[in-house]
Amino acid sequence: MLRLLFLGDIIGEPGRRAVVETVPRMKKELGIDFVVVNGENAAAGRGITARISIDLLRAGVAVITTGDHIWDQKEVVSYIQTEPRLLRPINYPPGTPGKGSIVLETAKGKVAVINVQGRTFMQPSLENPFRITEEEVRFLRSETHVIFVDIHAETTSEKIALGRFLDGKVSVVAGTHTHVQTADEQIFPGGTAFICDVGMCGPTESVLGREIQPIIQRFTTCMPVNFPVAKGQVCLHGILVDIDPNTGRASAIRRIAEPASIEVHPLYGIGKEFRDEAPVAT
Ligand SMILES: [Fe+2]
Ligand SMILES: [Fe+2]
After folding, report:
1. Residue 137: what pLDDT?
2. Which of 177, 123, 125 has its CA nearest to residue 150?
3. What is the C-alpha separation between 10 and 17, in angstroms, rounded?
4. How far is 37 from 32, CA to CA, in rounded Å?
């Protein structure tokens, strides 16, 4: 049995501090073999940097997925070409920097990860996620049947449809992007574990990880406002999935919603240059 942990969108400094602090302990305590996180909001809520990626990988994360915020930090355009464990959605047009999938060797066999973005209510509108993922899965299955898919999308219908479409062909289809965990985790008849959205790793007293008042002000006045990342207690949201490494079938899926300590271990230092005190223009 291979145990996979997936944590949803990491929000700014509070989110990444909590992940870096908690992942090594969780791996040990829960016997986790492979960790995937979505890092699209890790740099002050917008995108990800080289330094932050390195911190996450050093803490025991195997693969970092992203989504519509992937290009928010300009340095990522060159960095992603040097770090194959940092993925961007696979359905960008041919020639886009970086890759949308990876296969990694583990002690329990090869694990493949695909990152794909939905199209309904999403910008930019990318290539058809169903067709591109189907093609990639067909290719990857010659190497491994253990395939994890992060579907970064807004609507439950698009995510469920993709999960059903891939049932029996991949081990997990897990949603990200809404930052709100859904309670629909299940294993489909073909053996694919599914959840519409795993939720975020960010401050609880917030609106999707941002300070509450500016978001309310935006909705009430319709005027442009800065949306700083919120502070305070962080909750880690994600899933734990048990997978048969030979068949790729999932045997269990469990939701994680764990309040996190944000004391940082000195071995996993956090880059100070991306602290989130400064408000971020949106
Ligand atoms: Fe996000
Ligand atoms: Fe997103």
Report:
1. 98
2. 177
3. 9
4. 13
Distance 266 CA to ligand 2 centre (A): 30
Q: Which ligand is nearest to the CA of 122?
A: 2
Q: Any idea which ligand is nearest the CA of 180?
A: 1
* 8 A C-beta contact, residue 213 and residue 220: no
Q: Please give the structure tokens belonging to residue 148.
A: 């994890």
Given 69, 145, 152, 179, the catalytic residue: 69
Residue 197 Cα to ligand 2 middle (Å): 11
Q: Which contacts (CB < 8 Å, 24+ apart) does range 242-247 have?
A: 242/1, 242/2, 242/3, 242/4, 243/1, 243/2, 243/3, 243/4, 243/146, 243/171, 243/172, 243/193, 244/1, 244/2, 245/1, 245/2, 245/108, 245/109, 245/146, 246/109, 246/145, 247/145, 247/191
**What global pTM score does this model have?**
0.93
81-94 residue pLDDT tens: 999 999 999 999 99
- 69 labelled catalytic: yes
Cα-to-centroid distance, 11 and ligand 1 (Å): 8
Q: How far apart are CA 278 and CA 190, in angstroms?
A: 48
* Rounded distance from Cα 247 to ligand 1 centre (Å): 31
The number of the ligand nearest the C-alpha atom of 179 reads 1
Cis peptide leading into residue 124 (ω within 30°): yes
pLDDT tens digits along 139-156: 999 999 999 999 999 999
**DSSP line for 54-109:** HHHHHTT--EEE--TTTTSSTTHHHHTTT-TTB---TTSPTT-SS-SEEEEEETTE
Residue 36 CA, ligand 1 centroid: distance in Å: 15
